[in-house]
Design brief:
The chain is mainly alpha-helical. The chain has one domain. It is 66% helix and 2% strand. It contains 14 helices and 3 strands. It has a 3-stranded mixed β-sheet. Helix 7 runs parallel beside helix 12. The chain is globular, with a radius of gyration of 20 Å.
């Protein structure tokens, strides 16, 4: 059904006051409670200033522990987001991901696989153009602990970001502003702006923020067209896993002991590759899942409720049908 993903926010209690309370709850839990472990460990490290700048080697902290501490705010934030939707908005937490009765985990895998293929293809092209720029930096003692942390926690980090921006915010704005395209652009710009503090921005220039806004647009676009968050969940998780353990570069927000390290990162070329990969991903998914109705991005969302309680979602597989 048209706008079924956005209309999932119609279930439960969705007043402005509830959203304000939810944002406070999620923000406090993620930034304050989630930051306590890092605050304690960094404070007792060999070099607290280096630790806060994510220079874990200088701080005497292992990369795996450093990555774990980096990701704790996202883990706590995800728990807070699920709590907020369940107990403040009184609707099932899965409505942040899908309007259907079950999450389509196959789509999560498909999204991750397609994105991995695209990333690998463009990485091979970059290697072909400048093979000397890539250095094999595999060190088993550091790599495998980081790999374990990456596989366990990065999917939680990326799920939190998707659930918050493409789920909680985009659904709420879609209902409040009535037009999906406005919610899409707004959440993508905010998503990009929150990455202004990333080391890539200071290393390669503020203009690189457009890469974050663009990928936010891609995540939101496929979510609205597919009427579900599953594809975006798969892509985002694969993107960050790849950056953590496959290929890294100086100044990366995920500069971990990866298999390969680029000695220099050509920001302009990487931006071009990313843009092409994002366009290709949208086109491939549009073909696979037969997205025909692109006009719904600009169509007004009907806020008439056919079902009004969380219990009705559980009772009926077609709870959004009007």
């Amino acid at each position: 059904m048209v706008h079924s993903f956005i209309k999932a926010a119609l279930v439960g209690s969705n007043s402005f006051g509830k959203y304000l309370l939810g944002i406070i709850c999620i923000g406090f839990t993620a930034m304050i409670i989630g930051g306590i472990p890092a605050f304690i460990v960094f404070g007792y490290s060999d070099n607290p200033e280096a630790a806060t700048e994510m220079n874990f080697e200088a701080a005497g902290i292992s990369p795996a522990l450093g990555l774990t501490l980096m990701l704790m705010p996202f883990v706590f934030g995800l728990l807070a987001a699920l709590f907020t939707v369940k107990w403040i908005h009184e609707r099932p937490w899965r409505t942040l991901i899908t309007p259907n009765k079950h999450i389509n985990w196959k789509k999560v895998g498909v999204g991750a696989l397609i994105w991995l293929i695209l990333l690998t293809a463009f990485e091979l092209e970059a290697y072909r153009a400048n093979p000397d720029n890539y250095v094999w930096t595999f060190e088993a003692a550091q790599f495998f602990p980081v790999l374990i942390v990456t596989l366990l926690l990065i999917p939680l980090q990326t799920t939190f970001e998707e659930v918050l921006f493409r789920g909680y915010f985009m659904q709420g704005l879609g209902i409040g502003l009535r037009y999906p395209i406005i919610a899409l652009v707004f959440t993508s710009v905010v998503f990009g702006a929150l990455h202004l503090g990333n080391p890539e921005i200071s290393e390669y220039g503020t203009w690189l923020i457009w890469s974050y806004i663009q990928i936010g647009l891609m995540f939101g676009l496929v979510t609205l067209l597919d009427e579900g968050l599953e594809l975006a969940l798969g892509v985002h998780a694969m993107n960050n896993i790849y950056a953590s353990v496959i290929v890294t570069f100086p100044g990366s927000a995920l500069e971990m002991p990866a298999l390969f390290t680029m000695q220099e990162m050509d920001a302009e070329m990487m931006y071009l590759y990313s843009t092409i990969a994002e366009i290709l991903f949208i086109l491939i998914c549009a073909y696979i899942y037969k997205w025909g109705n692109w006009r719904k991005l600009f169509q007004q969302v009907s806020t008439l409720k056919s079902k009004t309680t969380a219990e009705s979602v559980i009772e009926s597989e077609n709870w959004l049908e009007e």
